[in-house]
Design brief:
8-stranded mixed β-sheet; 35 helices; single chain; 6-stranded antiparallel β-sheet; alpha+beta; 884 residues
């Protein structure tokens, strides 16, 4: 019904009422009338649309308008605006909460007269035999969500009635099942979305397809990837045909790949080069890689019918100066830490300063003339380390490969592949020259000195190092300190503590690793890999294991208290956390949790990010873990028993191995095995110490600063302090309003939270090196053996430990783990991780608890389904069963 018809009907309704109702009725009618009057044009020519018109033309319409303005070959047409959709939706009385009904109403109702009149007028003026009618939603072609293919397109539309029907169907497609599901998956409010309809002159295509200005699979920029088929491009987009495939360099015109599916190629070389060149121009115009739909008409003239950003590409580090020196290789420090989520800007500050410290140390021995830069860079709000210099050094690449082999085995495979790439060949010098250059740097770091001290007297030296670090990181600040003083203390801590602490902590780790390597070399083939792994079970002095066992002890204590047990089993963890903060939990649980948090409350899931709340602030995860422990009834599964049994088995293996060696070698082996047992547990101490003495105290320093800035209106909330840098925090204290900066960063952070895949090794051209270079095995999943044993049980895929429950005996399948995950290990029957190596965090803890584990398993969380029965062979590094 048109608005003026509705107005006169409402007016007639008012006039038949009594006088007493007249004034109220007139006011009501005026409101209805005002709400139905369109406030913007219903139809606009495509050539008049620009990027700021996205709210009325949708993403597709705005992009096409920009292309026309820039002179690209785009078929002429017009846009039926989102204002027209809103008016039609009002007339159809759709309810966003009832998407299926909304779609039916929009398909069934006539296009309102004013809209149809303007649309048909523009259609006739276009004077096209046939048109393409395309949906253009306001939520599509966004930086984090392309919405590609979510709404409908109709090609070859002829005649007035067919046009109006296509418009109705496009409107209705805003509420189809896939579009609604996509919006919900991307946290887009249905009530805020509107749809424009783009009508363009139809290109009678003899060939058409899709052009990507970056490789959408491996992420490599600077290459044109083209899929093309004869006829309309819709067949390529929908997957109805197997298209020809071309890859070309848009600058040189070189065609690197050509796959022809039929007797004759769809595109000739000149057309491939033309597409690559125009794709590069469009990418440069919009400023980011594009997904472009194209068509060649009967005269083989090229037309661009759509362009949108490629939203799946992983962001690049922006380092023009570094890239000018040639391609770079970036290793993901975030993934190596078992942390896939984005890190807040303030959370990145400690790592940047540590990077600057390392760069300064290595610069003193640098002779190749390269400028000194921090190796730590940011991409996608994750931290990467530029390992190019190491890869281009004969000794450095060997060290890099061995280190990643121990800590992150999948990355080690990638590093080996890259070592064969001529772009990263050693630049000059022999291996001996590399040794001569590196040894003074290592000696100057003092790591070998601290490692030798700890080898000589493990217990005394470890305690001494911890005391020294505590002294250096002590914060002498009164409770009423100003925000400026707090930032000064933060900066002092971040500058001085890592330089002092890192050599000592790395010396601890080096001593344990050297002991293990020496024992392995002395034994040779006298020991199996499984026996060597057993040596690292039940290790003392592991702070993460001690934390987990303390939590288990708490669960054991409160198991006997009916009130505490009932609260844990019946109430949600978030509710229990709130009750804890109010001091309202049952007494044994309240006091026991308080004691645990007094010792370990500085830790959390994702604790390497200063922006992440600590357990002392929100203990919900711990309460969920305790509730999980209460399900354990079999004493044989008790983690403390598992740990003790592991220690006994390790000591038994020590005796067996010593029995296989005679003479002086046996005395040396006894010393090395003793140091393995004494020192390998300290592998977790560096991170534990840094979080306890550096990261969490820095967070506490910043929280009052955030509160002051929020109170003075320069931040929206106190937690926004973690979305600015240290320099920006100082500027805000001086009076700068940083709320817009924070809002933009929070939006980026939210998008990155939804990202499922983070490259382990990223090249400066955007290539995900693992995807590009490493083949995924067929059948059973292969990884690295991490903890011996075989277990067959049901799998449970967990992407985040927050609020997760793992039934006793289930196999935990996770992308990665950090200490925040380990409470789940106590009830796990086995472990499968996508990241990690033999000495990664998850592997160490799994061995201590006697859990069979395989790590570095590509695609584990995608190929394994919760509930299916799988077998984990921690000795062979194989995961089988289920649907693998």
């Amino acid at each position: 019904m048109h608005w003026y018809s509705a107005f006169f009907l409402a007016l007639a309704d008012v006039l038949v009422r009594g006088d007493a109702e007249l004034d109220a009725g007139v006011r009501l009618t005026a409101l209805r009338f005002a709400s139905m009057i369109p406030t913007a044009p219903l139809v606009r020519s495509l050539g008049s649309i620009r990027a700021p018109d996205g709210p009325i033309a949708g993403g597709k319409g705005a992009n096409l308008g920009e292309l026309i303005a820039a002179g690209f070959p785009v078929p002429d047409g017009f846009v039926i605006t989102t204002e027209a959709y809103a008016y039609a939706a009002e007339a159809a009385r759709i309810d966003p909460g009832e998407p299926e009904d909304a779609a039916q109403r929009l398909r069934r109702n006539d296009v309102p007269n004013t809209i149809s009149a303007q649309a048909l007028e523009a259609f006739r003026a276009l004077d096209a035999g046939a048109v393409a009618v395309r949906s253009s939603a306001t939520a599509e072609d966004l930086p984090g969500a392309s919405f590609a293919g979510q709404q409908d397109t109709y090609l070859g539309v002829t005649g007035d009635e067919a046009l109006l029907d296509a418009i109705r169907r496009c409107w209705a497609s805003l509420w189809n099942e896939r579009a609604v599901a996509y919006r919900r998956d991307h946290d887009i409010d249905d009530r805020e979305v509107k749809l424009a309809v783009v009508v363009q002159r139809m290109v009678e295509a003899t060939a058409a397809g899709v052009l990507f200005t970056a490789d959408p699979v491996i992420g490599r920029r600077g290459r044109a990837v083209i899929d093309a088929a004869s006829g309309l491009g819709e067949a390529v987009v929908s997957g109805a045909v197997d298209p020809d495939h071309y890859v070309a360099d848009p600058v040189t015109g070189e065609i690197a790949e050509r796959t022809v599916r039929r007797d004759e190629a769809v595109l000739n070389d000149a057309e491939v080069r033309e597409l690559a060149a125009i794709g590069l121009r469009i990418e440069r115009y919009f400023g980011n890689p594009q997904d472009i739909e194209f068509a060649f008409d009967a005269d083989r003239r090229l037309w661009i019918v759509q362009s949108r950003p490629i939203t799946t590409l992983y962001p690049l580090p922006h380092e023009p100066a570094r890239e000018a020196a040639g391609p770079r290789v970036y290793f993901s420090a975030s993934v190596a830490q078992g942390y896939f989520e984005p890190i807040t800007p303030m959370g990145q500050e400690p790592f940047r300063r540590i990077g600057e410290m390392l760069a300064g140390a290595f610069a003193r021995g640098q002779r190749n003339g390269e400028p000194v830069r921090s190796p730590v860079v940011e991409a996608g709000l994750r931290l990467f380390v530029d390992v190019t210099p190491a890869l281009r050094d004969r000794l450095g690449r060997e060290v890099l490969e061995r280190l990643t082999g121990v800590a992150e085995s999948r990355s080690s495979v990638v590093i080996r592949k890259l070592a064969m790439d001529p772009r990263f060949a050693p630049r000059s010098g022999s291996r001996l020259a590399s040794v001569r250059r590196m040894v003074p740097l290592v000696v100057r770091s003092r790591i070998p000195i601290f490692a030798l001290r700890i080898m000589r007297s493990p217990y005394a030296s470890r305690e001494r190092y911890v005391r020294e670090i505590e002294r250096v990181t002590h914060i002498d600040l009164p409770p009423a300190a100003t925000s400026a003083a707090r930032l000064d203390a933060f900066e002092k801590l971040i500058r001085s503590a890592p330089r002092f602490a890192m050599p000592r902590l790395l010396g601890l780790v080096a001593a344990g690793m050297l002991s293990y390597a020496a024992a392995s070399r002395l034994l040779g083939d006298r020991a199996t890999q499984q026996e060597l792994q057993t040596l690292t079970r039940g290790l003392p002095h592991n702070p993460t294991t001690e934390m987990d066992l303390a939590l288990w002890a708490l669960a054991t204590e409160i198991r006997t208290d009916p009130e505490s047990r009932g609260a844990l089993m019946e109430r949600p963890a978030t509710e229990l956390a709130a009750a804890y903060r109010d001091g309202a939990l049952p007494r044994p649980l309240q006091e026991g949790l308080a004691a645990f948090l007094a010792r370990y409350g500085f830790r959390s899931i994702g604790e390497i990010d200063l922006g992440v709340p600590r357990w002392s602030e929100d203990p919900a995860h711990l309460l969920g873990a305790i509730a999980n422990y209460l399900q354990l009834g079999d004493g044989a599964l008790a983690p403390d028993e598992q740990f003790e049994r592991g220690a006994r088995e390790a000591e038994a293996v020590v005796a067996i191995l010593l029995g296989r060696v005679r003479g002086p070698r046996r005395r040396v082996l006894r010393f090395c095995l003793g140091r393995v047992r004494a020192l390998m547990g300290s592998r977790e101490l560096p991170k534990y110490t840094l979080i306890r003495r550096l990261f969490t105290p820095m967070r506490e320093l910043l929280k009052p600063v955030g509160e002051e800035l929020a109170a003075t209106g320069r931040l929206e909330s106190a937690d926004d302090i973690f979305f600015v840098t240290l320099a920006e925090a100082r500027q805000a204290l001086a009076g700068a309003d940083v709320r817009e900066t924070v809002a933009a960063r929070r939006a980026t952070h939210a998008r990155e939270l939804a990202r499922r895949h983070v490259p382990r090794v990223l090249l400066s051209d955007g290539t995900d090196a693992e995807v590009a270079l490493v083949d995924v095995p067929d059948g059973a999943l292969r990884g690295s053996p991490a903890s011996p044993g075989v277990v067959t049980a049901r799998a449970r895929v967990i992407l985040s430990p927050q609020g997760a429950r793992l039934k006793p005996g289930e196999i935990l399948v996770a992308p990665s783990t950090d200490p925040g995950w380990t409470p789940l290990f106590l009830t796990a029957g086995g472990l499968v991780m996508e990241m990690g190596g033999m000495m990664s965090h998850g592997a160490v803890v799994a061995r201590e608890y006697g859990i069979p584990a395989v790590v570095g398993v590509a695609g584990a969380t995608e190929r394994i389904t919760t509930g299916e029965e799988i077998t984990v062979d921690g000795s062979a590094g194989v995961v089988s069963g289920g649907r693998l």
